[in-house]
Specification:
Helices cover 75% and strands 0% of the residues. By secondary structure, it is mostly helical. It has one domain: Sodium/glucose cotransporter.
């Protein structure tokens, strides 16, 4: 069926509207605190929705349904771990972040260990976040090229440019408030899509239930027994233990040490509101992933063909929207997917810029004027937009299922980062030299797991964290140097 003028008009109105909305915040940006922390005056509920939007990208919306299409609902076990991880952060890391005026997560590392380790952790964040975000931006091209018929490179360029405009001008305030709007758009659009699919499946819900139940598509828990490790299986990615434990470690790292999320938590009015935002976002994320997975199950009930018929599972949902959805609704759903892409990209641009400025430039040029700092921060944002555009172009035709590739890239560094943060807040004996040794060992192990093992990514962060913490603590005991208070 394809998109018609009504669909294209809805998409164009959304793109223009969200860009203009973001530009409304440009006059409020007078200092670095305004630009990177929104003057710490954002209500908890807006931060919660922004956190949800920041961890939801195009690859989530198109790849999670594809995952359920090929399998079942067992990915929800990982999401359960996401909720557990948020509880850990609330008790272990957030109290540390609200001691003093911090702009980035890595200032905490310098306060505890020293400037060298801050440089290492911030640098690792910049590298891995840029790489993972390049894959996420690439995912935009899958949707836009299917919907609009534009080339993949042109599709990436359009979204990157429009997102850059309001992120460049409005800083974190524009990012958070556009996230709020975009969250309602893509969740509302997905709900409309779910209802529409249900009406298009012959026989309605009864038919969906019969088909899905017969193939165990509604299975949530997977508790296999290995011959060597009872109730553990280190090969399957979505078992109960891999999901809950792996998801908890992954979220503790991503939401507790990654500037992309920590920056939002630091923008809260106080620690209590930050905790409330983080925990409530966990409830919203669980609902959201359940929604996306159900879309995949219902798409299977509709098509009942292998995902290979579409070329790749990530193309199933966008193809359904363009070819089967009624006009108007199709345009709304494409706009919803673009909303998720833009919210995630704007978050990445602002967090990469903030870390570049606060963790590197201003440490060596502390005397720069406020106006000069703000001007350079905007230029750095442009620089990172160009970097992400380039990485997204490189990712074309070189990745598998995009949601898993994105999580794998991030997981490679998260274990080492989380291990260092836990060394800093859970023990007084760890020192900078020992922590660096532990971090190198943890990162080496995670690179091995990524490139040369069959251990699924859901275990990488947990393994990397334990290695980093154990080696870092042992090295600190052997390498006794003065410890920063």
């Amino acid at each position: 069926m394809g998109l018609n003028r009504i669909d294209l008009l809805i998409i164009a109105v959304y793109l223009a509207g969200i860009t203009l909305f973001g530009l409304r915040f440009r006059k409020r940006q007078r200092t670095m605190r305004d630009y990177f922390l929104a003057d710490r005056d954002i209500p908890w509920w807006a931060i919660a929705l922004s956190i949800v939007a920041a961890e939801t990208s195009t690859l989530t919306i198109i790849s999670i349904p594809g995952l359920a299409y090929d399998s079942n609902l067992t990915f929800l076990q990982v999401v359960m771990g996401y909720v557990v991880g948020r509880v850990i952060i609330s008790f272990v890391l957030l109290p540390q972040y609200f001691r003093g005026e911090l702009y980035t997560a890595y200032q905490l590392i310098e306060r505890r260990f020293g400037p060298e380790l801050r440089t290492v952790t911030a640098g690792l964040f910049l590298l891995t976040r840029a790489a993972a975000e390049g894959v996420r931006v690439y995912a935009v091209s899958i949707v836009v090229s299917i919907a609009l018929g534009t080339g993949e490179v042109a599709s990436i360029a359009i979204i990157t440019l429009l997102t850059l405009i309001y992120t460049f001008e409005g800083g974190l305030a524009a990012v958070i408030w556009t996230d709020v709007v975009q969250t309602f758009i893509y969740v509302g659009g997905t709900l409309v899509g779910l209802i529409t699919i249900l009406h298009l499946v012959p026989g309605g819900w009864g038919s969906v239930d019969a088909i899905a139940s017969g193939l165990h598509k509604f299975q949530v828990f997977d508790l296999p027994v290995s011959a060597h490790w009872p109730y553990l299986n280190l090969v399957k990615p979505y078992t109960l233990w891999a999901g809950v434990l792996g998801g908890a470690f992954l979220t503790t790292a991503s939401h507790g040490t990654d500037q992309l999320i920590v920056q939002r938590l630091l923008a809260a009015r106080n620690q209590r509101q930050s905790v409330l935002a983080l925990l409530s976002s966990g409830v919203a994320v669980f609902f959201q992933f359940g929604l996306f997975l159900f879309v995949g199950v219902m798409l299977f009930a509709y098509y009942q063909v292998p995902s290979a018929a579409f070329g790749r599972a990530d193309r199933i949902y966008p193809t359904f929207i363009v070819t089967r959805m009624p006009h108007g609704i199709a345009g709304l759903l494409i706009a919803a997917i673009l909303a998720a892409a833009m919210s995630n990209l704007s978050a990445a641009l602002n967090s990469l810029s903030s870390s570049s400025m606060m963790d590197f430039y201003l440490r060596f040029r502390p005397g720069a004027s406020e106006a000069g700092r703000l001007r350079l921060a905007r230029l750095v944002t442009i620089g990172w937009a160009l970097v992400l555009f380039g990485l997204a172009v490189l990712a074309l035709h070189r990745v598998g299922r995009v949601v898993e590739v994105g999580l794998q890239i991030a997981s490679v560094a998260y274990g080492a980062l989380l291990g260092v943060f836990l060394l800093g807040v859970l023990t007084k004996r760890a020192n900078q030299g020992g922590a660096i040794v532990g971090m190198i060992c943890g990162l080496t192990v995670e690179l091995y797991l990524w490139k040369w093992s069959h251990v699924p990514f859901t275990w990488w962060v947990a393994i990397g964290t334990c290695v980093t913490y154990a080696v870092g603590y042992a090295a600190s005991v052997l390498w006794r140097t003065p410890i920063k208070a």
